[in-house]
Design brief:
Number of helices: 21
CATH topology of the largest domain: Rossmann fold
Strand order of the largest sheet: 2-1-3-4-5
Distance between the termini: 129 Å
Number of strands: 22
Radius of gyration: 44 Å
Shape: rod-shaped
Number of domains: 4
Largest sheet: 5 strands, parallel
CATH superfamily of the largest domain: Response regulator
Helix content: 40-55%
Length: 651
């Protein structure tokens, strides 16, 4: 070796890591020469062995950086078999040493993926370069494997599905999360089979969007919301995003993308849409019901007046009673519309959910086979709920009737409950922070088709046969309004042919919300007058006319006003002139000005003993209690007839 070579070798020894190379050679002289040359090049030789079996044992023990392996070794394990085991088991690179070899041996050697060949007799320069290339190649392969391992670990632990396709769009990789959402194994997703996971109704849309991306030359990305469907039929909404994967030369070699489960978001969007839709329809329904009740009041009031006429025949009287009965049925429909519109006023108190459920079953289903099939399984520690007993009974009656009519009686209906706590408000929950009682009513009946499940709370939506007895389609809508009014939530899960489960979330009782109840008067007028005086406030001229006529026929003197300010002014003037009103009839809703509640508030300031009767279109015990707390002495419910007015005013 010349001086320059020695200097280079010397410099090489000082600046690089000392790699350990094991020699496997059965010719002693060749092995010794090779060891000397390696040491001169700055490598460490931890072992020299002469058989394949010993090489495997030694490699397992000392873990060299590289093995120089003679292809031709005596013994049961030749150099090729030994190299294959060392590389496969210990990930140690192997460079073959050979003087000659037949074609079959060379093919066997190639199959073991060697890191190089050194021909005997070898030159020092060739030996050095082959070893360095092999070490570098091994380092790069290890880094690549580490990178691949990091990618796969990251991909498999990712909360989003990841997929990769070739340039044709055939799948070549999917991660664990993608498989969970699609319900396919990696093998089942390969090639074009992954497209089978797309919901049949979305395939055309996704196919067009994917085609648009592939034809854009990589300029456009794929961004779509669509559904995946597992072989078992489970549907999941996802947001899919994909982009072209390019080589260093900017050649498009495939596509890589993700799918994110957005089912919760879609469910909340649907619930928000339902809520806004019901709110809008509720406002409309409330307005219609108010006007409808006014018309019914005119009809029923007029009938009351005509029935008092002594000149009508018996046949005419019967016809009037038929109209009156029909009007009463129409009034029930108006009540349902008002309940849907407002959810009703709530008479909140501490309620034992199990007790009211058992009362509902006893009162409504006691004489039917359904009573024996309804199983109530509620834990003793279920929190009491903060709600209106009558309203909640109405909800549970509707839900149980639906379960019975769905065929739940045959296979049984179960009612379960548990306590839950919302620790903090978030976008994924419609409930506010706090404790709730979750009550589930589940049947094993016919179930609800998936395409109808999102409509079950819509007004007049029903899968039942419409008739005069059932199937009006307002039951679930009213349930929704009442539960939302309570600050709770109602949701349904169903599978066609397997049954339906309705979950009701009600806020737990914390502190009583009782308000002081105004003492009721004995109904006696404050001033004795020959003719009792009535102040009537209503904004509908026809209602004013008919109600005024009924009051006069009942022996009252009537003054009529359109809105609250007029009524207050007249009431004050009557007091000052020592000719006060005995009672004020105040319609709660007024489109022209101040309504009944606000008017009463001002009248109480003028006269704390004012006798005021609320005229309301909402009829139930809760409404009466609420209005009495506000200071009304009685409630006249629309639509009303003369007998109703008489009963209220003489009570």
């Amino acid at each position: 070796m010349n001086n320059n070579g020695e200097e280079n070798t010397h410099r090489h020894k000082k600046t690089r890591t000392k790699f350990r190379i094991m020699i496997v050679e059965d010719e002693l002289i060749v092995a010794q020469n090779l060891e000397n040359q390696l040491q001169k090049l700055g490598y460490e030789v931890p072992a020299v062995v002469n058989s394949g079996k010993e090489a495997i044992l030694k490699a397992a023990k000392i873990k060299p950086h590289l093995v120089l392996m003679d292809i031709k070794l005596s013994g049961s394990i030749d150099g090729i078999d030994a190299a294959d085991q060392i590389h496969t088991r210990f990930h140690i690179p192997v460079v073959y040493l050979t003087a000659y070899a037949d074609e079959e041996t060379l093919q066997r050697a190639k199959a073991t993926d060697p890191f190089g060949y050194i021909l005997k007799p070898f030159e020092l320069k060739k030996l050095h370069s082959t070893i360095e290339i092999a070490l570098y190649k091994h380092q790069m392969e290890m880094k690549l494997k580490e990178s691949e391992l990091r990618f796969r670990t990251l991909a498999d632990s990712s909360p989003v599905g990841i997929f990769q396709t070739d340039a044709k769009g055939d799948c070549i990789y999917v991660n664990r999360r993608w498989c969970e959402i699609a319900g396919l194994s990696p093998k089942q997703a390969m090639g074009s089979a992954w497209t089978k996971a797309i919901h049949p109704e979305d395939r055309d849309t996704i196919s067009r969007a994917w085609y648009t991306m592939t034809q854009s030359g990589g300029e456009l990305e794929f961004e779509q919301e669509f559904r995946l469907q597992t072989p078992a039929g489970k549907t999941t909404w996802v947001f899919g995003h994909a982009a072209a994967l390019k080589s260093k030369s900017r050649e498009r070699i495939g596509y890589i993308g993700t799918i994110t489960d957005i089912s919760v978001r879609k469910k909340l969007e649907d619930e928000l849409l339902t809520s806004k839709k019901l709110e809008a329809i509720g406002i409309l329904a409330g307005g219609i019901a108010h006007d409808f009740n006014n018309l019914l009041s005119v009809i029923m009031g007029t009938i009351s007046i005509v029935k008092e006429d002594a000149n009508i025949t018996e046949g005419q009287y019967e016809l009037l009673e038929s109209v009156e009965r029909a009007s009463a049925q129409a009034s029930e429909l108006a009540q349902k519309l008002i309940t849907f519109s407002k959810g009703g006023w709530l008479n909140r108190k501490k309620i034992n959910a199990q007790q009211i459920l058992e009362e509902v079953i006893q009162d409504r289903f006691a004489n039917s086979e359904a009573a024996e099939k309804i199983k109530v399984n509620i834990p003793h520690n279920l929190l009491p709920v903060d709600g209106d007993e009558n309203k909640l009974k109405q909800v549970f009656v509707n839900l149980l009737l639906n379960a019975v009519e769905a065929g739940g009686v045959e296979k049984g209906i179960t009612i379960t409950a548990k306590n839950i706590e919302i620790l903090e408000e978030n976008a994924q929950s419609p409930l506010k922070k706090g404790q709730y009682a979750k009550i589930t009513i589940e049947d094993k009946g016919s179930g609800i088709p998936e395409e109808f499940l999102g409509n079950i709370f819509d007004p007049y939506f029903t899968t039942k046969e419409k008739s005069s007895k059932k199937g009006l389609g307002l039951g679930m809508t009213i349930c929704y309004s009442i539960i939302r009014k309570h600050g709770g939530h109602i949701a349904a899960k169903s599978e066609e042919g397997k049954g339906t489960a309705v979950n009701v979330y009600l806020p737990a009782f914390s502190t009583p919300k009782d308000a002081p109840v105004t003492d009721e008067t004995d109904g006696s007028p404050k001033t004795e007058t020959t003719t009792p005086r009535v102040l009537l406030m209503d904004d509908d001229p026809v209602v004013q006319d008919v109600t005024g006529q009924m009051l006069k026929r009942l022996g009252y003197e009537v003054e009529i006003f359109n809105e609250g300010l007029q009524a207050i002014k007249a009431y004050k003037k009557a007091m000052e002139s020592n000719n006060p009103f005995d009672v004020a009839l105040l319609d709660l809703i007024n489109k022209q000005g101040m309504g009944g509640r606000e008017t009463l508030g001002e009248l109480l300031k003028l006269d704390p003993q004012v006798k005021a009767v609320a005229i309301s279109g909402f009829s139930n015990d809760t409404e009466i209690n609420m209005l009495k707390r506000e200071g009304f002495t009685a409630v006249l419910f629309k639509p009303y007839k003369m007998a109703d007015i008489e009963q209220v005013l003489r009570t």
